[in-house]
Specification:
With 51 residues, the chain is mainly alpha-helical. The chain has a domain of 27 residues. It is built from two helices and no strands. Keywords: Signal.
């Protein structure tokens, strides 16, 4: 069983995160694109290494 203080701090940080995310919705849209580019480059490196 987790202590209550840990639970409270976690939920509070989650709330802060949600608040922050709602203020930067424009930037949030870019996150999947960044991940796509990162994943694609990682894939290319793997392919390049296997050649």
């Amino acid at each position: 069983m987790l202590p209550l203080s840990f639970f409270l701090s976690t939920s509070y940080s989650l709330l802060l995160l949600l608040k922050y995310c709602s203020t930067v919705t424009v930037q949030i849209r870019w996150i999947p694109k960044v991940f796509e580019v990162y994943y694609f480059s990682h894939l290319l490196k793997k392919l390049w290494a296997s050649v």
